[in-house]
Design goal:
globular; two-stranded parallel ribbon; 254 residues; mainly alpha
Length: 254
């Protein structure tokens, strides 16, 4: 069977229900952000646990590659084909990953080069995974797996979920990682864009609207990851600087 896109659109009540669920999540995150008084610092794992987390991430990646290979080979044997366009999202994802890496290194050089680089690595890895976890949950039931569908859906997505969860666990390796109000606000923004995308059927990003919504939500996912590594006081200083600049400009105009 030939398909144009990698997953089927949401339609009718399914699209509305999905949008409502995503809006509730976005609202809950925004509420928690407004209630958060100070950044949340997570306990850093020891050396042995850190190595274990890295190994879990790498093993998950290997499992996914094996599962994806079996999935693809079986789909080909059963005649599953896709005629849609090539992946136009990857260049955006790669660019956002590079920018996130560089900015995290720059912001954390005072903590030492090693800490800055390790933080940048785990932050750049987590960026797309923040997007992918809810995205995969949304589309996994609407893909076109080979037969038996339920078994191959689990074969493909379970290792992918392990990659995503282990990448989040890796964030704790960085001693400068903390969850701030901005982290929750950026995450709420991502779910808000997801909700708008759901109202548009959560369609494959080939036409302008789904493509823009995909890029914007992914940008907010990387911003969420980046916000975890902004040193304390940076947001306040930036806002104060911006307010001071606006005040001086207004005075100059008058």
């Amino acid at each position: 069977m030939t398909h144009y896109a990698e997953w089927a659109d949401y339609t009718g009540s399914a699209a509305i229900i999905l949008a409502i669920v995503l809006l509730v999540i976005a609202g809950a995150l925004a509420f928690l952000a407004l209630r958060l008084r100070k950044p949340i610092e997570l306990r850093r794992p020891g050396a042995s646990l850190s190595v274990f987390l890295v190994m879990c991430f790498l093993l998950s990646a290997v499992l996914f590659l094996v599962a994806a290979g079996i999935y693809g080979a079986t789909a080909y044997q059963q005649g599953e084909r896709f005629t849609g366009p090539t992946n136009v999202i990857f260049p955006y994802t790669a660019t956002l990953g590079i920018v996130t890496f560089v900015v995290i290194v720059f912001l954390n050089m005072r903590s030492g080069f090693r800490v800055a680089v390790v933080s940048a690595i785990v932050g750049a890895i987590a960026g797309p995974m923040i997007f992918e976890l809810p995205f995969d949950i949304i589309v996994m039931g609407r893909t076109y797996p080979p037969s038996p569908g339920a078994d191959f859906t689990l074969l493909y997505f379970l290792p992918l979920f392990l990659i995503e969860l282990s990448s989040f666990a890796l964030l704790t390796v960085s001693p400068v990682m903390r969850v701030s109000r901005w982290t929750l606000l950026f995450l709420a923004g991502m779910f808000l864009i997801f909700a708008i995308w759901a109202l548009a059927g959560f369609a494959y990003p080939v036409t302008p609207l789904p493509l823009v919504l995909n890029v914007v939500s992914k940008t907010l996912a990387f911003a969420t990851s980046l916000s975890l590594f902004v040193p304390p006081g940076t947001w306040r200083a930036a806002l104060a600087s911006g307010a001071s600049g606006a005040w001086n400009t207004n005075n100059g105009l008058t």
